[in-house]
Amino acid sequence: MSSMTLSSSLHRSLTSHGGSDSPTGELAPAISIQGLSHWFGSGQMRRQVLHGLDLVVHPGEVLVLTGPSGCGKTTLLTLVGALRKVMEGSVRVLGQELFRSSRGERQRIRQSIGMIFQGHNLLSFLTAEQNVQMGADLLPGLSYRARRDLAREWLRAVGLSDHLSKLPHDLSGGQKQRVAIARALAAHPRLLLADEPTAALDSRTGREVVDLLKRLAQDEGCAVLMVTHDPRILDVADRLVRMEDGRLWASDALVG
Questions:
Q1: Can you give the pLDDT at residue 256?
Q2: How many structural domains does the chain have?
Q3: Which domain covers residue 128, as residue numbers?
Q4: Cα four-point dihedral sign 193, 196, 200, 202
């Protein structure tokens, strides 16, 4: 597979759909969390999974979240992604407060968030190109041809330009993961949430994928919140945060 790169046409498309600054010229945090707690069940069956979390992620920042399985990392991603209701605390995403938000408000904010989860969630009856085009369909003002071309560009960027017409059942696990990544990026998200994005990828492909995400953050100001157990890609982080037992224990600035 050739190295994953952004073509000039894809870079222009991203730039033309860039986010706007605040009226003061300063960028507000992409994610601002204060006192976030979450639990499942009630009464004697209640199990608390997040305990009073505070976290800020800025536009253009790659924050990598690590920690043991079952400590609450994926639950945090689903709350930030407006896939669950916020029970307690403040979660402000791209300027929208999610605590006590309506279903319509959560649906609208999800249109600006790219999500990469381990289940891929590809539609089995659509080709790789059509699955990725679903992401491009969220961009306003683009013709069908422009959305199709954007989908093809993203598949090329993740090394799958020769798999456009394949259905998910004809793809390997790693190829499905790359299609899911291309679909998330085709929507030109202002925030990208990635849960183990390299889990199904070999070391070379995983490195190329996270380098691509890093370039998007640097060049386009997309904030990235990534969960991973892969020690080989921790150097992509601007900040590394560890979660244990539903608490954020450490945050280190990475230099270099």
A1: 36
A2: 1
A3: 8-17+59-84+112-253
A4: positive
